[in-house]
Specification:
Keywords (chains A, B, C, D): DNA-binding, Repressor, Transcription, Transcription regulation
Organism (chains A, B, C, D): Actinoallomurus acaciae
Distance between the termini of chain A: 45 Å
Protein name (chains A, B, C, D): TetR/AcrR family transcriptional regulator
CATH class of the largest domain in chain A: Mainly Alpha
CATH superfamily of the largest domain in chain A: Tetracycline Repressor, domain 2
Radius of gyration of chain A: 20 Å
Structural class of chain A: mainly alpha
Number of helices of chain A: 8
Pfam family, one (chains A, B, C, D): TetR_N
Oligomer: homotetramer
Mean pLDDT of chain A: 87
Strand content of chain A: under 5%
Number of domains of chain A: 2
DNA sequence: CATGAATGAGGCTTCATTCAT
DNA sequence: AATGAATGAAGCCTCATTCAT
């Protein structure tokens, strides 16, 4: 996981107890932990966060539910790990695009590609954001996600407005409204998108970019 | 509620028990019932279906939770009423558009407008569909909603393909993929759309139609 | 229960839900509630607060543990009710003594008698204070008890010092230290005192007052 | 630890397992063990026996909770060690006083001083006895403590009655009742007594002895 | 039509303890 | 002598639902 600071990152639980000098031990521990996170992520994606019980997760791992608390101090901290890892990766990728620069059309296209590329390895996290955010947002510990999203909005809207300023994009559309439509369309695709299907992540991204920039109509605008 | 048949309509449970011979009484009862449904809908929209307890609903109505069961025989039947009423209205409107006919571009634009128009009075239902469908879909009683959606998909995809056939729409896009993107983008807007804001339902619909047909770019395609 | 205000009184749980116009209902409800409190009090006294489970209480009442939460919103709120009721009664009695006035020896003797008199009907509360206060004090909700005790200390110390000022009490003893010894000796007696035994509350109080004022020695001081 | 026989001493469990043939090793082990007992004692005194988890103790020692079981075979055996060491020391001191002999007033005064002197180094044990005995007494393994207390009661009551017989002490007081009051008052002082405060152990003992023998009043009895 | 009480299933979490490494 | 993982029992609490009054 690439923790980018900026207040992101899960509220990790008192790992202080597990000392820190040994080598193999902590690597293995972390492997076990990541395995459990992956199992939980799949269940959260499939059944939803609330409907997934810690027993479901433990069953999947072949242990008792209480044993999960050797690795995590709450169900929340598991989903936190899932979500923060997703946001960290996406933010890092977006930052890289911005640093590479380019005209707004290129930047926007790359941002779209970032999303679809991140969607594949973080399918569960995106699923949770789509289905369970309305529940999770009530917990203070997830405030950092709302703040991360606000920052992302500023980034996209900035590019759209820059494009309108240089005449690349139509002037009669609302930048913020447009951003939200783009964002939602992309992420909500997680509900049906199958990388193994006819179109892979790049394919869907290209399809989406095509429609986004030029619409579905033929002929002159 | 306009029950359009076709398997739609909530699975109302043993309404025979309380629907005795009274006339005026049942009108009042029905008003009370609709009031309770509205209260529940708002809570479902705000906190999510699972996170809303029957006690929350009862509190809002100023009664005890057990008393709700004089009006509904389960929490599921409440949300069923909310969702079926939304789908009934939308299906009816879509059918009307199809009957009016017209070229695919016109029809598609009208279908988009239907959605945004329905979104306003059925905000809660759309919210529930966006946030809680992943949970609700597991119950057999809601199968009818999945079937309704399949029918709607056929309807839209049919129009898009007709448009591609007549050269109105680009040939290099995937009709089903495009439909899903359109659908998701529209409904997910319920998360931020505020009819009292800068743009009303028609305004947002127009904005969306503009981008959909012609993209956000300027200049030749 | 005589709620004397002054920040005392348990954090009573949202009784707002149970409306308030009916007569017999709320009286009965309150009777049931008090019955449960009494059962819990006896268990807390016998086994300790922590070692008493909500199941123990429910079993004693012949209901399921979850059903307790129809009457209380937590185990803490039950013990709160027990303790606040005890403190309220004691504070009220002490206030009455102060208002009657008299020389410090008389007042002190009456305060002692107050304690032993209150001990009998509130045996469980005193037991909990002796055995479980070290645990309960960690919860903010019980801060009011610590504050009540501070006020009582001021009251007693005031009387002892007044007695020293008028030459009634020895000058070579520490008022605060003496108060604490008196207080502790009295309340800790709950561990062995049995009202049905050889001495009743008044008898033990008199015995204690005799030793307190004149010591156990014979002959000149 | 001075194990005085008479059923005292902790129920040490299978120490044969870890007490192999090493000499220097067992001294070090014993030091480590005593260190852990001291850490545990402080936590028990502060938070109570039940509320202190073995993990709390292990954290304090900088090890994992499972590792404690190389030194003790249960949480009970730790508190047993704390309490038996306290009782052993007190009993030995009391025996020495009895052996020195003297008139009941002198003996009683010395017994009181014994208590306050023992209280300081065994603060935690006394705290546990005050706060957690009601819980611990349910375990057979602590029966020996109840028996030790009975023996002590006989010892004190014997001295009081001897004093009443020789006319040193008032005849109108109950020996057993008086003993319990003295005992409770002394030990419960652990809740507020601070050796570093205005009065040290001897000072508090003298204060207490003065009030005990002559009361707080001035003038003739 | 509502109340008040209860059910029963289940949820998350804690914790003393065990044991292979 | 310690770790890291797990157990198993239990704890407090929640919630949809039922039902006599």
């Amino acid at each position: 996981m690439v923790s980018t600071g900026k207040g992101s990152g899960p509220h990790r639980d008192g790992s202080g107890a597990s000392g820190g000098g040994r080598r193999r031990g902590s690597v293995l521990a972390s492997e076990r932990r990541e395995h459990l996170v992956r199992l939980a992520a799949e269940l959260f994606a499939e059944k939803g966060y609330q409907a997934t019980t810690v027993r479901n997760i433990a069953d999947e791992a072949g242990i008792l539910s209480g044993s999960l608390y050797h690795h995590f101090d709450s169900k929340e901290s598991i989903v936190d790990e899932i979500l923060s890892s997703f946001f960290d990766e996406l933010n890092a990728a977006n930052k890289a695009v911005l640093e590479r620069g380019g005209d707004p059309r290129t930047v926007l296209a790359e941002l779209v590609r970032n999303c679809f590329r991140t969607l594949v390895p973080h399918r569960a996290a995106v699923m949770v954001m789509q289905n369970d955010w309305n529940y999770l947002r009530r917990f203070d510990r997830f405030d950092y996600l709302a703040r991360a999203e606000e920052e992302t909005e500023r980034l996209w809207v900035g590019q759209i407005e820059r494009g309108q300023g240089t005449g690349l994009f139509r002037d009669d559309i609302d930048a913020r409204l447009t951003y939200r439509m783009i964002r939602d369309t992309i992420w909500v695709a997680v509900r049906w998108f199958q990388p193994a299907g006819r179109l892979d992540a790049e394919g869907v991204a290209d399809h989406y970019i095509a429609v986004l920039f030029d619409g579905i109509s033929t002929g002159p605008r």
